[in-house]
From TrEMBL:
Keyword ATP-binding: no
Domain of life of the native organism: Bacteria
Domain Phosphatidic acid phosphatase type 2/haloperoxidase: 89-194
Species this protein is from: Prauserella flavalba
High-level lineage: Bacteria, Bacillati, Actinomycetota, Actinomycetes, Pseudonocardiales
Protein name: Phosphatidic acid phosphatase
Amino acid sequence: MTVRRSLVLGVVLLAAFVALGVFVSGSPGGLDALLGELLQDRWRGPAGVVAEVVSAVLGPVLPVLFAVALAIGALVLWRRGDTDRAGIVLRVLLLLGLCRATSWLAKPVFARERPRVYPDFSYPSGHVVSVASTGVAAVVLCTLLAAHLVAVVTRVAVVATLLCAASRVVLDVHWLTDTVGAVLAVSGIALLSAVALRLSPPVRRGVASSA
């Protein structure tokens, strides 16, 4: 993907995130309301127990652990004299932080209420933002330093994000659109930040790397 396309797509995704947040700021309706009725009180049963475990593993702890790993990795590379790769890892760390910050900054702006009584606002889902941010950062890192792992890491990131989103909806602490908004926000910020931080894949033979 070229730099121009990354910028355009990033802006479009962020605009979609804002538009969705404005659209769902009132009373829940459509698919949100339908799922809310279908899953009402399911979080109190076995499904809720499973969702709680998934939510505990795939949540805010992931970007913290990955950030620590990136910081250590950058330090090791720097001490070995590999400043180029150390710089890439540090920029990926910054990308991770920018993506993760979307939920902290956006929640007070939209101030959407949760499906049930629960701390903090609802849009976008902080758990999904955490998992998606970690996945995006990992894919970008592999794209630049371990291209042979990109496909596998991408699949793992997508599955982990979907599982996290499902767990938050089953637990009745997020509307479906909260999870969709989280993915839109992270994707938009990631595309724009990758360009700003010079983390876009190199261009070969006049065509940007498919990764």
